[in-house]
Amino acid sequence: MLSRVSTSALRKGLCTAPRWSLLPRSRRGLLTLAIETSCDDTSVAIVEKESNAVQIHFLDKVTCDTSAYQGIHPVVALESHQENIASLVHKALAHLPVAKHEKQQTINVSSDSELRRKPDFVCATRGPGFRSNLFVGLDTGKALSVAWQVPFVGVHHMQAHLLTPRLVSCMNRGQTQENSQDVTASEQPITPEFPFLSILASGGHTMLVKSSSLTDHEIMASTVDRALGEALDKASREIIPPFLLQTSKSTMYGKLLEEFAFPNGKADYADYQAPKSRHDELIPRENPWGWSFTEPWAHSRQLQYSFCFIGSTLARIFSAREAAGQTISHEERIALAREAMRTSFEHLASRTIMALESLAKQGPEKEVKTLVVSGGVAANQFLMTVLRSFLDARGFGHVGLVAPPPYLCTDNAAMIAWAGMEMFEAGWRTNLTSRAIRKWSLDPREGDGGVLGPFGWERAEDHFVQ
């Protein structure tokens, strides 16, 4: 089974989106069609940028239902991409802006009598991800660029995640311009400005990245074992009663865990306060059942993450209950869900504070003003509460905390469009011999050379001119 999620369902009216950013129609913005197929989401977007204001003309995705496998099944996801990519592209074409100038740069859409503007370039996720799945989107994107005779840009999936807040700032700026009629609103700098720090947390990645420029990203910390999203997904399947999992018909297990732990939403953790010191973090939390979660590397300041402790702690608790012939009550399951999230989020926050302290010691020029949280786990509102509380409690209240809206935290083609636009405007193109990349680091200091490391990049002599 497949589930379709469109922006009309996620945020009413965004696909046609007049209230998001009505770009001045007397001027021609940079227009792209973008494709995302790195994992189990097939997504297509059409995005336009005028100066620093953005309008999303179209954003839709189909998520492969792999709930029967209790996780992502790469082959089933691949089949979903193959079945849905063409229909999504076909649907997107009807949302290309109507051509009003430069009639030679147009597309004749069969379902419409009006000529549509041809995208200035096409972009698609090149990696990292499941290689076969990536090829579906990559080859489709390259084929469209050949058919339309426009450039192609292969996008780094994780770079797109960390740049998403910059997309959101341009969407908001366009809205401000529309409401105030201030034509200078779109000329303001895009935020967050470099340098900034990012937590990229998803089912496949957990890393802390310092971004000094569009292509210079230093990985300051990463997980040595399991990604945070994967650990929470596994915890969800262990903690949530089976009948609730079966009735949910969803593979977004992390979201299910948050909803199960906090049925009243933010009201259930409104009184959360971060530990005032590292010492306070290590004090065990007492509860009526006698168990506790212990943060890894309790006495180390090593900048690394580890989330296997969640699964091992749960296995120990469940095994002890089974050996004693005891059942786990609904109340205890809620407590387990809350503690699994609290300890894992505090571990993430604590190491992030250590990184900020390290940067501060290197001098004012190394400090950052913004902490970005992106990736699927960034949609967890309890995580954002924990991070904000840690920043305030540990002397970093001046550091801004930003995350995209939930529908842009998970994989989507709008973020691919934005990353493609930033690379395109910086003069980068991808040649048609490029291939999908399963593993692709962000950091140029690592063996593969980071974003610009793989073969296939070309430098355009003439950048796009607004």
Name the descriptors:
single chain, disordered C terminus, 466 residues, alpha/beta, ATPase_NBD, five-stranded mixed beta sheet, Nucleotidyltransferase, domain 5, tRNA N(6)-L-threonylcarbamoyladenine synthase activity, tRNA processing, globular, disordered N terminus, 15 strands
Give a written overview of the molecule.
The longest helix has 32 residues. The strands form 4 sheets. The protein has a 6-stranded mixed sheet with strand order 1-4-3-2-7-8, sandwiched between helices. The N terminus and C terminus are likely disordered. It is α/β, with parallel strands linked by helices. The protein has 2 domains: 238 residues, Nucleotidyltransferase, domain 5 (2-Layer Sandwich); 205 residues, 2-Layer Sandwich (Nucleotidyltransferase, domain 5). Helix 2 runs parallel beside helix 3.
Indicate the overall shape: globular
Order of helices and strands: EHEEEHEEEHEHEEEHHHHHHEHEHHEE
Largest sheet: 6 strands, mixed
CATH homolog superfamily of the largest domain: ATPase, nucleotide binding domain
Helicity level, as a percent range?
Answer: 25-40%
Q: List low-pLDDT spans.
A: 1-26, 462-466
CATH topology (fold) name of the largest domain = Nucleotidyltransferase, domain 5
Strand content: 15-25%
Total individual domains: 2
Structural class: alpha/beta
Calculate the terminal CA-CA distance, rounded to whole Å. 43 Å
- The name of the CATH architecture of the largest domain is 2-Layer Sandwich
Number of strands: 15
Oligomer: single chain
Calculate the mean pLDDT score and round it.
Answer: 89
Q: Radius of gyration from the CA trace?
A: 23 Å
- For the record, the CATH class of the largest domain is Alpha Beta
Number of helices: 13
InterPro entries: ATPase_NBD, Gcp-like_dom, KAE1/TsaD, Peptidase_M22_CS, TsaD
Family: Belongs to the KAE1 / TsaD family.
Keywords: Acyltransferase, Metal-binding, Mitochondrion, Transferase, tRNA processing
GO cellular component, one term: mitochondrion
